[in-house]
Amino acid sequence: MTDRPQASRLQPDNFTPPARTPWGGTKIRRRYKAGLGLGEGAPVGESWEISVEPSFPSRLEADEPGAGPTLAHAIAAAPEAWLGTKVAAVYGQTPLLVKLLDAADDLSLQVHPRDGDPALADDESGKPEAWVILEAEPGAGLYLGFREGVGRAQVEETIATGGRLDALMNFVPVHAGEAFIIEAGTPHAIGRGLTLLEPQFVAPGRKGVTYRYWDWNRRYDAAGRRDDAGQLRELHLARSLAVTSWDAPRGDAFVATCRPQVEVLLDEQRVRHERLLAGPWFEVEAWRGDGTLRIEAPNTMWAIVCVGGMASLSFGPDRALTLRRGQSAVVPAIARDLVVELSGAELYATRSPT
């Protein structure tokens, strides 16, 4: 590793095991990662594309799999060069966690605590997140917030009596290209048939926390396969109820608060540049098409995921970096004059606010 940070691809196989994500499908490995030499293998629920989270840390790509340094180690060697002065001063590491997620089955109905929740352990973090829908099978959608008129007492009674919690939630049909912001305290679940990009904020060095209200009464064996004789997944009823934002709007009014205003930054010829969402935790842009796109330096690190086509990224005097479908990269703050040559490409770029 050189003294001056370089834009780098990350190893493409940072997958969660089926026991952790038993709802996972086959699209990540067979479609998004096809051609990267990863083989067929087990279903993959999540691919942690850009991560310094201790559970599944990313590694910089190397000639030998597993030989590259972790992203956390690379950033720690030159935090200001990687992250910019502001982000380095506040966090010392990147708080970004960016995943690909493939739901062949419904995820549990769950909620995340806010960062700084006093009940969190020293090694735990809140986890505000966002979703960018990449694929949606017919009829697929999201469970997002409680329906009009639903309050805590009804939720508690439904859980206590073994009722269906999904019946109390807004079901939102979605299509590819839509984005949603999931603030801490929001009851939510990703429905079956969706593949998406999931940017998250996780305090560096800690583990993002998820509390489950309900998991469809499903049972699994030790390998994460459905098994009526198996075990129920762990639930966190008291904590789920405690961190829920009960004063939030309900019904359609709540769903509307989760939809960011997309800003079109460039739409010329065959190139489109959009800012999908911008908030206090992260900002996400989409770079699509065929042609040349020039990106203004953000003064912090870009976390870039390629989900279609191919792109070449160049940074002034630095070497060019090629990304194809299924590959991800990090571009340090010191990189300037980012030029992206798109070849039928679809890229998503996430950064911390500055």
**CATH-derived topology of the largest domain:** Jelly Rolls
**Helical coverage, percent range:** 10-25%
CATH H level, superfamily name of the largest domain: Jelly Rolls
Identify the CATH class of the largest domain: Mainly Beta
Tell me about the biggest sheet?
8 strands, antiparallel
What spatial form do the alpha-carbon principal axes imply?
Answer: globular
Structural class: mainly beta
Tally of individual domains:
2
Radius of gyration based on Cα positions? 20 Å
Report how far the terminal alpha carbons are from each other.
27 Å
Count of separate DSSP helical elements: 7
Proportion of strand residues: 35-45%
- Compute the number of strand runs: 22
What number is the mean pLDDT? 95
Q: Which CATH architecture of the largest domain would you pick?
A: Sandwich
Q: In a few lines, what is going on in this structure?
A:
This protein has helices at residues 27-32, 71-77, 79-83, 85-91, 152-160, 237-243, 251-257; strands at residues 8-9, 46-50, 96-103, 109-111, 124-125, 129-136, 141-146, 169-173, 179-182, 188-190, 194-201, 207-208, 211-214, 219-220, 231-232, 263-268, 271-278, 283-295, 302-315, 321-324, 328-331, 338-351. With 354 residues, it is mainly beta. It has two domains: 8-257, Jelly Rolls (Sandwich); 263-351, Jelly Rolls (Sandwich), CATH 2.60.120.10.
